[in-house]
Sequence to fold (139 residues):
Amino acid sequence: MKPIRNPQVAEVFDRYPPKFRRKLLALRELILETAAATEGVGELEETLKWGEPAYLTSKTKSGSTIRIDWKEKAPDQYAMYFHCQTSLVSEFRERFSGELEFDGNRAIVFGANDRIPKRSLKSCIAAALTYHLDKKGRG
Fold:
């Protein structure tokens, strides 16, 4: 697993309950792996947005920010968030409605004991990380 270089991000991961920390670190790894394997994305910036671990295509500007988080108000789930003013989640819902659970137009939600459908989720991550390339017709 790739180490977290940003100390503020590492601190947020350290505060998650252990069960969800492992799950969120697995999502983080999936995001980093997908970025590395997706043409045009480049290196991701790992930072905090709204106090949540966030992954940005700062250098290439190829995509839309992805955030991950667990919240006390929904203690049995965790989520991957996307910019709500994009068409990403509606597109994901159209393609993966039987496999993934969604929260409005902003998130893919996972239950504490859900198995993550990695292939479908990687497709969603790649779409977010190339969102601006795709909108320009180059993706």
